[in-house]
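G., the chain you wanted modeled:
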Amino acid sequence: LFIGIFSNADDDGRLKASPKFLKATIFPYDVNKTDAQIKELRDSCANLGLIRLYNKNNSEYLDIPGWQEHQQIRKDRYTHSKLPSIDEADETSPLNKPITFGYQSPIKGREQYEHAAQHTLSQRLQANEWLPTNEKITKVEINKRLGNLYADIVATTDSQYILIEVKVYPLQPKDLGQVLGYKREMEKRGLTPITTFLIGGSLGKLTAEEAEQASVKLLNLRELLVETTKQSVEVTGATTDQP
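Predicted structure as tokens:
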């Protein structure tokens, strides 16, 4: 849910927060999710410090703490939010807390969102709710150590390893180089065969052709988390302006 919130927030990091709106916006095709489940997920995000909830004129809103610190929007493309800020709120939620993720020290800036994305995806992998290669996942490791490097996610099936690198911003050529470095380290250790995924908010300066030549599959983070099937979704028609 949080990644969907992050992807749909306006240029000031704000979004309507009613469960009905969030469900329609982030999970439009998931008929199994109820408003009550969305509310529980939303409140958990607030309790972890990922968002702040507030009310204005009997309507629910949220914002993302530290949005301005990690989002750089070109001045000529910036659109001022039409939603009230938390400073204008009639009431703020008692659930709002500093970012802790419930189990470690606070993380600042963009890293907190990538960290949340990694854990969200790893949970989906562990529950076999996402099958990137259509094979059952038997093991999931987060921040797997490969010498002096740490890969975001390494999942294992009965026949292969799945290497996953997660970015919340538009993908760049350096991101491809990074994930290929992890792949080489895995190959040195005999952890093969490997299917490699690079997940991002959209396509930046990295092209699909470059990734294909390197045998790396590109996935769109938002589409991946809102899809209702268990199939991988390749990045298509992505823009460079949205996170």
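The mean pLDDT is 82.

Shout if anything looks off.
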